Amino acid sequence: RRCGRTPRISSSPNTNNMTIKMPHQLFINGEFVDAEGRKTYKTINPTDGTAICDVSLAQISDVDKAVAAAKEAFEEGEWGRMNPRDRGRLLYKLADLMEEHQEELATIEAIDSGAVYTLALKTHVGMSIQTFRYFAGWCDKIQGSTIPINQARPNRNLTFTKKEPIGVCAIVIPWNYPLMMLAWKTAACLAAGNTVVLKPAQVTPLTALKFAELAARAGLPKGVVNILPGSGAVVGQRLSDHPDVRKLGFTGSTEIGKHIMRSCAVSNVKKVSLELGGKSPLIIFADCDMDKAVRVGMSSVFFNKGENCIAAGRLFVEETIHDQFLTKVGEIKKMKIGDPLDRSTNHGPQNHKAHLDKLLEFCQAGVQEGATLICGGKQVQRPGFFFEPTVFTDVQDHMYIAIEESFGPVMILSKFKSGEVDEVLRRANATEYGLASGVFTQDISRALYVSEKLNAGTVFVNTYNKTDVASPFGGFKQSGFGKDLGQEALNEYLKTKAVTIEY
């Protein structure tokens, strides 16, 4: 089972004018190893539906080995004793290695997830590198405080707090930004001094395994990072139930988030952070900069082919500009749909076949309920999992497509009457989700009022999708709780100890 320093690598010599090397085994305790029983599955290229390679499929015993390795690395290994500044140096080195391999990582992301290469390079991989650099800088700045308390006269007291790592953390991530979601959680987790067992999405495991190779090359001690491709029902469930895992960070659906939260409670009251579904409203007022609102409004829906947790799930457009807005949005018909490795492609394939099928059902529901389908709604007639960018208008609040998340390239337009600011806010907030939101207006008072009243973890004003590694990201209501990114993300992976001394 042990492969030592010679892991099995899938090599693709002429992909995107380079040779890419992809590890495809589990990564446990610093080594690439087969799953128990040498179990594997095929990971699929969504551009043509063909298999990229066989990937090891983790079993319960593999999870137990990875957790044991992470526990030993935390409690007995050099990682737990390392100076925070030295820990930061390793994370900086890892970020440098990711940057050296950014074209290779972006190519792997394109063929495994369908992300357009140019976007993968800038966002999927680029922001991942930025995230590790940002949190590397936090390693030696995690500190407690001294607190004045009532003295026990005639004696005196000193109380101070320490911020300590939690221990073994499990991270379970989705398939839409495979490397970036790994980075958002893992960088903060490692900066805080924890060890990690990460389950990538079963359909997009390859950049996580390449990351494991780079982490080992950067000098992270064995057991600090462990990567287990596999199913949610087996690997995700075992991580939720495992008595030695003390924290679980999850990004995915609200339904699975609730299940994970329940399992974490029943097993050992794990600390949990959840970034779940969204149906983010974007409100466009008549006084907006129309060209910018159209451009950003299209991006808010179609960015990363709509596979974006903060995508604008509903656009509320003031009725006096609705028709003009709709005409300008017709530009999406000019988007070039095609191979994500082609530099001129704007719109790649959906991530996997089951998701494509869900999008077809979603659009059929919209038509059946009486929404007006302006364009799209169909699979593109070519190999692979391509879906036409879609626009619906005349969408009423009670309709399925107004309530549920598509997670695809589907624009949902609804009108609102001029002057009815509070009414459109009521409609925008009438959802169980609260991940992101946006408003376009040139009236600063209205922008501030709307941003105050929108019940979401992020509000964009005259922009959208503008996330940054320094700004906290997370939802309200059934979009979950806890933050990724920014200083606040560290709190998800730390515990506070209060020490009181009498003298």
Automatic annotation (TrEMBL):
Record PROSITE patterns: ALDEHYDE_DEHYDR_CYS, ALDEHYDE_DEHYDR_GLU
Residue intervals of the Aldehyde dehydrogenase domain: 32-499
Keyword annotations from UniProtKB, A to Z: Oxidoreductase
Gene Ontology molecular function, alphabetical: oxidoreductase activity, acting on the aldehyde or oxo group of donors, NAD or NADP as acceptor
Keyword Oxidoreductase: yes
Signal peptide: none
Active site positions, chain numbering: 275
Keyword hit for Oxidoreductase: yes
Family: Belongs to the aldehyde dehydrogenase family.
The name this protein goes by in its record: Aldehyde dehydrogenase 1 family member L1
The species this protein was found in: Gasterosteus aculeatus aculeatus
